[in-house]
């Protein structure tokens, strides 16, 4: 289905993604982990074609996505929804309108200029919102919603695209643990119920372990691990994160139940000082 | 060639709305005579009307002599003088009057040496052009600040000059008067008389320090490019106004006068020369 | 804020409501657009009608006047340096009017702002009074005050300076009090608790917070005031505006002077604009850096 | 950021603090000193001391007094003996022949009662003025011998100004001037006389309740008409003038907004990759902004003549520069995240702008536009004063001709109200159109920054 | 020494402090506890005269403080230092200047305008900062310091006032556990070493128990408990906090070691949603 071959991205001298190769042959939920700057975002952005690759190929159903231009490229983007850490909604527009943006690719420019979306799509948007449990916020402005709700609007926008793949770039990084859980569960449910492939950048191991079928580890632009969640031992994690022996996995945790209290408190103390 | 509207410009010197009101009857007569919509415009200064005539947005106006000269020098083909106001005594001249405060001890131009002198509007004949030529002739020095007078200023207009002198803001200034009647009344007509009537100055507190040669009254001008027939109609209208409607004539002529009589460009050659002289 | 709130309306209801809202928005938007277009068109027609010349007849003549001025100025290009020197003192006067009035207006505006901000005012009951004073100072165009003052004080730079200072005080008073409203009252309360008096609280607790913004606004005002002081010259307040009006009004024969004065004024405005822009940038930028540190 | 030890000892710290404080003191003394020095320089450069001496406070008093009072002139033409009574000495305020207010008794000898014992008599030959506490002043104006005053014995007080041809007496009750041609009495009253109706209107002097009664009986239209066409105060013209002023501001501001918006894209990095075009557009903005609206008025007056259109176009040209600058900055500062979000769905360029950018910049643009609407009302007043027309022209002319200070006061009040109204209106519209502002204060501050 | 008699403060209909009576006859460290809105802050602010009392008296050494006006009132404020939850420093000024603000009452406005603080006061300020362990930050801007450091600057400012009483309004509420400990210890030390009376509003029982000689409990504006820390049983605490049987003391704790992990995490989750 999705095959990434020696995909590389250079920013000047800096190689953000270095000959990444990945093969996804059936719909599954993939978590990409790695520390900051490892190239996770760049990889996803290349798949969505928000960023052009420097070298390599991305094949989707045997078509090279990296070569697409203009209309074809936009059609691919419509097939491959993206969810961002900062939600990237239009805060001043209402929730339904934001969700409807997922259909932009299907409509003529003129109709969209005047915000004229067909009514049945409006209804479908509300259905999707309902599925994500936020239908009652439909007429509100996006900016009036909490972070977790906004992220669900973003997911709704993605679903509105009716995409073949959903890419999620640290979808829960700016959310608190409770909202994070809601959002991750929504993504998982979408994968399970609709059978869509979900690729999510995650910055915590336990989230990856808990929700993903497959985990990919990146370090310095390279894919250094690709396997089942169970294979992700502390040793492997240390390698991915390039940490020394003092590395404690929980330091990255945001799961509600697995917190080690003292550890957490100390961490926070550090953060606020 | 047809015209779709006729626009008359009115010079400053009086309240804008008063000017419009005084000329309202003229507007109505014009509308009747030409059969097109007629509008009055009263820009803030002399230049506003002149620019209108030059740009073709004003068709007719009563200019000062210097103003006409400016129009002519900018574009000889823009307007032609057709009529002039004739005074009750049959002449068509007035004077530039230099004056100062009595308590300043100034009684003549000689006393003004080293003092501050005030002109009015740069485009005024009596408030600038004529005195700026005749006074240097009398004093034998230029009008540059610091040459004969300590400082030479433009106050902006006749009214401002009178106030400036009265306030001691300038020591002496020039404005216009018809030279008829008494000094105490501020003459029969002119800027001083208006100030007296308004209770603004008491002429007992003022002295005259200088008087110019007679200045030709400014012409009523009309745009040259207008259809001949329109020009003829309008000239006739103004010409006959004093007989046709005395009240209206009083308003348009800004006071008692005999009538508007025809005049030609030649009468202003001398002013035009004077103005050329002042353009560096 | 959770979604668990009971009694949520059914999805169908939401759909109906939303469709209704969308329709209403479209109708309002359409009406608004029509009203706006109609207003613009009607306004333009009225203005065109009440103007001496019409837009259609005049637009091709817009370069007549500049051409006249520039061609004469070009002919007498040799006189330019001399003209520039002649009118330089007038430029200094204009700049002085602007600078002095900005300075005085800023001081007065600071006072007005402190007096009309909740939590800072010395007499909280008088806040509305000081607000209205600032509003009125701001609402009167400078030219009105200047003309009245010229009547009393005679022509020259002082009436202009006072007029601009009054307007500046009003304008800055409003802007400053908005800045003040964004300032934290915590330091003020802290100083209050140590027994500091009002002026100490303002000087130490408020001014350091708002200072950079104040300076930035005052600089902006300085730019505006240079123009204002040039304009007031037109009605007899001295400086470059006075010279410019005299030479423009005389017209042909002195257009070279007009051009020289205009050049001085324009260059000054652009230079001050750029300099103050740079300075303001630095101020707000430096401010952010400080906060981050 | 935690407390790691530095190698500075306490004494070194103290020394450092000493230096810090001396530096601060230098600044604390230096800044005010500089300001004071500058103000002192300005004080001398502007000759403020001399000005204070020259200032004419009498004028100030006249102005203030006149702005809330009016004078009635009783004038006798000494050549033909006719007596006329007029308000403010104006033709349109003249009482019809044979009529006069009740303090003037017309007749062979006209008796003018100025109250408090002040009485002026215009006799066939002689003018008499009874001044309580001083005596009676007589003057006989003749063409040949001038004005012959007869004053009570003693020194002539300074409120009497006599010369051969003129006598002027100013008291608290009024003013008398006698010249050879004319004898005239001014009596001052408080109020704006004839504000509602002129003397020739049948409604002059009627009380509000009388007027209400008349209005009820079907004369409302004619009452309104008489008020509207009042020749003294010219309410109709004033209303038009205000309208013209606002019209100039409205057309100028919104026209500039529309032009600037389309041009701003040219000056923006994210929409126009051509550096030269960007540079050029920006310089055009700078130029039209740098040349003040007033200069544009003068320039445009040649092409369009006097009138509100010229004023509106002058504002339009200047503000195109200002808006161009502000708008292009707003466009450059858009949050890329939103655009990216829309882009990731496969939206094309126009759609990205429509949804990613327009919602972001609209509030900024709108609030700028509305803010300028108010400030341009003020500019339009000034521009009108120079050439355009409108209330500014009425005001400057009234000030320059310096007689009707009550009209000046009226216009000033109207201008202030107009500007405040526009301020309120634009604020109201801003709140309505940009509803749901997350942080109104921050936005307002931003707006202000641009002005 | 300090006697508060029937002190009352009404805000409209709302009675924030209701006839509070308190007697402090020897220097001690008093903790005031009570839930949000109980009137703790209002009480302290009335003592410092930041807020005017509606009724009642505050006697300090037999002088009625509530009646003071103008200069006398400011002199009293100088005697009665206040420490705030949010530190209330002047953030853009350097630390020494902030500490010197403690002496403002002694200096004329003009002198302060020109920064004419006597040099020995500057040195004393640095000594005080040294005592609180933050002397090396003296020339930095206050805003550049961490929360705990800023609160210590605030304490230094209070000490600079050489006050008879120190009032502290939730001095550690915006601090993390580590900094909270440092700050409370500093306050305790000041009380012990200088013998000054310290009155501190605290929002956690255990802090009050650990650092105070005497604990006052407020509820709905009334003083409902006044006794030794040991007398503060869970029953009493329940009464003060108006909690039912589900009340768990630890829910309010900020002490590093006593945290119940799950409880805390949930609380935080709630707070952020
Ligand atoms: N637009 C860009 N221009 C230049 N360098 C970039 C750009 N975007 C990313 N990089 C660089 O590429 C590298 C990989 O960045 P990327 O954002 O993909 O990392 P990441 O794994 O998503 O990290 P994070 O967890 O911080 O989001 C980094 O070194 C980053 O500095
Ligand atoms: N300035 C004020 N105006 C009106 N009501 C006020 C004001 N200040 C406090 N209150 C009210 O007085 C009551 C007591 O407030 P106070 O701040 O003293 O409580 P607190 O015990 O300090 O609570 P917290 O722990 O939240 O700080 C509250 O109901 C509060 O709403
Ligand atoms: Mg990333
Ligand atoms: Mg509190
Ligand atoms: O040109 P004037 O009418 O002012 O002499």
Task: Provide a short characterization of the protein structure.
With 293 residues, chain C is mostly helical.
Terminus-to-terminus distance of chain A: 48 Å
Share of residues in helices of chain D: 55-70%
Under the CATH scheme, the architecture of the largest domain in chain D is Orthogonal Bundle
**What overall geometry of chain D do the principal axes of the alpha carbons give?**
elongated
Oligomer: heteropentamer
Portion in beta strands of chain A: 15-25%
Helix and strand composition category of chain D? alpha+beta
**What is the overall pLDDT average of chain D?**
83
Helix/strand structural class of chain A: alpha/beta
Beta-strand content estimate of chain D: 15-25%
Determine the CATH topology of the largest domain in chain D.
Answer: MetI-like fold
For the secondary structure, the number of strands of chain D is: 12
CATH architecture of chain A: 3-Layer(aba) Sandwich
Largest inter-chain contact set: C-D, 65 and 70 residues
Give the strand line-up of the largest sheet of chain A. Answer: 6-7-8-3-9-10
Membrane topology (chain C): Multi-pass membrane protein
Domain ABC transmembrane type-1 (chain C): 91-276
GO cellular component, one term (chain C): plasma membrane
Family (chain C): Belongs to the binding-protein-dependent transport system permease family.
List the SSEs and their pairings:
The complex is a heteropentamer, with 2 copies of chain A (273 residues), 1 copy of chain B (280 residues), 1 copy of chain C (293 residues) and 1 copy of chain D (451 residues).
Chain A: E1 2-11, E2 14-24, E3 29-33, H1 40-47, E4 55-60, E5 63-64, H2 70-79, E6 80-83, H3 95-100, H4 109-113, H5 119-131, H6 147-160, E7 165-169, H7 177-194, E8 197-201, H8 205-211, E9 214-219, E10 222-227, H9 234-241, H10 261-272
Parallel strand pairs in A: 3-8, 3-9, 6-7, 7-8
Antiparallel strand pairs in A: 1-2, 1-4, 4-5, 9-10
Helix pairs in contact in A: 5-6, 6-7
Chain B: E1 5-9, H1 16-22, H2 24-34, E2 37-41, H3 46-55, E3 60-62, H4 65-74, E4 79-86, E5 93-101, E6 116-119, H5 125-139, E7 151-154, H6 158-167, E8 172-177, H7 191-197, E9 206-211, E10 215-216, E11 219-223, H8 228-244, H9 246-253, E12 259-262, H10 269-278
Parallel strand pairs in B: 1-2, 1-3, 6-7, 6-8
Antiparallel strand pairs in B: 3-11, 4-11, 4-12, 5-8, 5-9, 5-10
Chain D: H1 10-45, H2 48-54, H3 57-67, E1 69-77, E2 83-87, E3 104-105, E4 110-115, E5 118-122, E6 127-131, E7 135-142, E8 146-150, E9 160-163, E10 166-170, E11 175-179, E12 182-190, H4 208-228, H5 235-264, H6 275-290, H7 293-304, H8 308-332, H9 336-343, H10 349-388, H11 391-401, H12 405-433, H13 440-450
Antiparallel strand pairs in D: 1-2, 1-12, 3-4, 4-5, 5-6, 6-7, 7-8, 9-10, 10-11, 11-12
Helix pairs in contact in D: 3-12, 5-8, 5-10, 6-8, 7-8, 7-10, 8-10, 9-10, 10-11, 10-12, 10-13, 11-12
Bound molecules: adenosine-5'-triphosphate (2 copies), magnesium ion (2 copies) and phosphate ion.
Phosphate ion is lined by residues 64, 66, 124-127, 176, 218 of chain B.
């Amino acid at each position: 289905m999705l095959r990434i071959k020696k995909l590389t991205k250079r920013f000047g001298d800096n190689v953000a993604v270095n000959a990444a190769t990945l093969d996804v042959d059936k719909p599954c939920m993939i978590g990409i982990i790695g520390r900051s700057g490892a190239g996770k975002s760049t990889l996803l952005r290349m798949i969505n074609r928000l960023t052009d690759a420097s070298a390599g190929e991305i094949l989707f159903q045997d078509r090279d996505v990296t070569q697409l231009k203009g209309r074809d490229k936009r059609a691919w983007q419509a097939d491959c929804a993206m969810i961002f850490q900062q939600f990237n909604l239009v805060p001043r527009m209402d929730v339904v309108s934001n969700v409807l943006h997922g259909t932009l690719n299907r409509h003529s420019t003129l109709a969209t200029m005047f915000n004229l979306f067909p009514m049945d799509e409006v209804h479908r948007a509300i259905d999707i919102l309902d599925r994500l449990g936020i239908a009652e916020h439909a007429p509100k402005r996006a900016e009036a919603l909490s972070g977790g709700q906004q992220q669900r609007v973003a997911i709704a926008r993605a679903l509105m695209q009716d995409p073949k793949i959903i890419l999620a770039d640290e979808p829960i990084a700016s959310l608190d643990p409770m909202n994070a859980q809601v959002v991750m569960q929504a993504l998982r449910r979408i994968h399970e119920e609709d059978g869509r492939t979900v690729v999510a950048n995650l910055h915590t191991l336990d989230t990856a372990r808990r929700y993903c079928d497959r985990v990919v580890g990146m370090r310095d632009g390279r894919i250094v691990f690709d396997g089942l969640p169970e294979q992700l031992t502390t040793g492997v994690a240390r390698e991915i994160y390039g940490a020394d022996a003092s590395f404690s996995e929980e330091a990255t945790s945001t799961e509600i139940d697995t917190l080690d209290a003292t550890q957490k408190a100390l961490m926070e103390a550090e953060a606020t000082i | 060639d047809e015209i779709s509207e006729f626009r008359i410009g009115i010079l400053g010197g009086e309240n804008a709305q008063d000017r419009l009101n005084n000329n309202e009857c003229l507007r109505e007569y014009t509308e009747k005579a030409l059969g097109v919509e007629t509008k009055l415009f009263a820009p803030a200064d002399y230049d506003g009307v002149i620019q209108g005539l030059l740009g073709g947005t004003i068709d007719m106006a009563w200019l000062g002599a210097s103003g006409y000269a400016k129009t002519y020098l900018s574009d000889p083909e823009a307007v032609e003088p057709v009529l002039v106001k004739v005074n009750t005594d049959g002449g068509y001249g007035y004077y530039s009057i230099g004056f100062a405060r009595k308590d300043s001890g100034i009684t003549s131009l000689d006393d003004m040496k080293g003092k501050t002198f005030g002109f009015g509007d740069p485009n005024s004949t009596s408030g600038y052009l004529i005195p700026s030529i005749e006074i240097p002739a009398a004093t034998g020095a230029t009008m540059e600040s610091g040459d004969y007078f300590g400082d030479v200023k433009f106050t902006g207009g006749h009214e401002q000059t009178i106030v400036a002198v009265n306030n001691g803001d300038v020591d002496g200034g020039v404005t216009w008067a018809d030279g008829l009647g008494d000094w105490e009344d501020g003459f029969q007509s002119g800027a001083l008389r208006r100030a007296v009537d308004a209770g603004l100055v008491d002429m007992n507190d003022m002295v005259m320090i200088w008087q110019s040669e007679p200045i030709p009254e400014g012409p009523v001008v009309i745009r040259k490019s207008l259809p001949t027939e329109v020009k003829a109609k309008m000239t006739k209208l103004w010409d006959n106004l004093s007989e046709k409607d005395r009240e209206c004539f009083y308003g348009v002529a800004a006071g008692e006068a005999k009538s508007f009589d025809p005049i030609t460009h030649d009468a202003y050659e001398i002013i035009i020369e004077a103005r050329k002289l002042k353009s560096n | 804020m959770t979604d668990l709130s009971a009694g949520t309306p059914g999805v169908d209801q939401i759909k109906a409501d939303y469709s209704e809202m969308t329709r209403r928005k479209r109708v309002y938007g359409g009406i608004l657009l029509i009203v706006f277009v109609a207003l613009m068109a009607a306004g333009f027609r009225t203005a065109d009608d009440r103007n001496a010349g019409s837009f259609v007849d005049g637009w091709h003549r817009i370069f007549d006047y500049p051409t006249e001025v520039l061609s004469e100025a070009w002919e007498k290009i040799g006189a330019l340096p001399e003209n520039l020197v002649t009118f330089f003192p007038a430029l200094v006067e204009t700049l002085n009017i602007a600078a002095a009035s900005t300075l005085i207006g800023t001081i007065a505006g600071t006072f007005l702002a402190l007096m009309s901000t909740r939590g800072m005012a010395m007499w909280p009951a008088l806040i509305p009074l000081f607000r209205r004073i600032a509003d009125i100072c701001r609402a009167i165009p400078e030219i009105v005050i200047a003309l009245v003052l010229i009547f009393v004080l005679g022509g020259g730079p002082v009436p202009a300076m006072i007029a601009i200072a009054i307007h500046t005080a009003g304008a800055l008073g409003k802007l400053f009090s908005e800045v003040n409203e964004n300032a934290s009252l915590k330091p003020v309360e802290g100083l209050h608790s140590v027994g500091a008096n009002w002026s100490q609280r303002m000087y130490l607790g408020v001014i350091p917070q708002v200072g950079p913004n104040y300076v930035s606004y005052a600089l902006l005002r300085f730019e505006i005031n240079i123009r204002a002081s040039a304009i007031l010259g037109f009605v007899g307040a001295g400086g470059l505006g006075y010279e410019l009006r005299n030479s423009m009004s005389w017209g042909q024969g002195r257009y070279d002077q007009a051009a020289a004065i205009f050049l001085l004024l324009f260059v000054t405005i652009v230079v001050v604009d750029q300099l103050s822009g740079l300075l303001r940038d630095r101020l707000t930028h430096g401010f952010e850096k400080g906060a981050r540190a | 950021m935690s407390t790691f030890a530095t190698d500075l000892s306490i004494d070194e710290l103290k020394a450092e603090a000493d230096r810090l404080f001396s530096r601060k003191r230098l600044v604390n003394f230096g800044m005010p000193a500089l300001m004071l020095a500058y103000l002192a320089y300005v004080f001398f450069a502007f000759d403020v001391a001399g000005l204070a001496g020259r200032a004419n406070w009498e004028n100030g008093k006249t102005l203030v007094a006149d702005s809330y009072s009016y004078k009635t002139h009783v004038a006798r033409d000494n050549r033909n003996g006719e007596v006329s009574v007029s308000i403010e000495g104006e033709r349109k305020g003249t009482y019809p022949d044979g009529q006069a207010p009740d303090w003037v008794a017309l007749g062979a000898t006209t008796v003018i009662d100025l109250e408090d014992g002040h009485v002026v008599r215009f006799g066939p030959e002689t003018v008499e003025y009874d001044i309580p506490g001083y005596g009676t002043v007589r003057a006989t104006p003749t063409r040949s011998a001038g004005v012959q005053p007869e004053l009570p014995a003693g020194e002539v007080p300074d409120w009497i100004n006599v010369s051969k041809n003129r006598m002027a007496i100013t008291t608290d009750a009024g003013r008398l001037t006698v010249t050879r041609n004319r004898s005239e009495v001014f009596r001052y009253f408080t109020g704006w006389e004839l504000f509602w109706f002129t003397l020739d209107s049948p409604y002059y002097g009627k009380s509000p309740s009388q007027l209400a009664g008349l209005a009820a009986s079907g004369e409302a239209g004619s009452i309104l008409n008489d008020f509207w066409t009042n020749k003294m105060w010219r309410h109709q013209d004033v209303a038009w003038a205000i309208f013209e002023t606002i019209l100039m501001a409205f057309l100028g501001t919104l026209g500039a907004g529309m032009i600037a918006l389309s041009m701003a894209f040219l000056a923006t990095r994210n929409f126009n990759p051509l550096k030269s075009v960007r540079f050029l557009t920006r310089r055009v903005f700078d130029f039209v902004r740098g040349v003040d609206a007033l200069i544009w008025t003068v320039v445009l007056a040649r092409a369009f003549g006097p009138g509100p259109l010229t004023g509106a176009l002058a504002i339009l040209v200047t503000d195109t520069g200002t808006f161009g600058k502000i708008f292009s900055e707003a466009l450059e500062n858009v949050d890329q995240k939103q655009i990216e979000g829309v882009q990731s769905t496969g939206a094309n360029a126009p759609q990205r702008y429509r949804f990613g950018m327009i919602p972001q910049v609209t509030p900024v643009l709108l609030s700028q536009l509305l803010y300028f609407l108010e400030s341009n009302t003020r500019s339009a007043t000034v521009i009108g004063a120079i050439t355009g027309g409108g209330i500014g022209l009425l005001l400057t002319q009234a000030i320059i001709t310096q007689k009707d200070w009550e009209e000046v006061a009226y216009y000033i009040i109207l201008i202030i109200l107009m500007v405040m109204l526009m301020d309120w209106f634009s604020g109201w519209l801003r709140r309505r159109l940009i509803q749901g502002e997350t942080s109104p204060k921050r936005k307002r501050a931003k707006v202000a920054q641009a002005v």
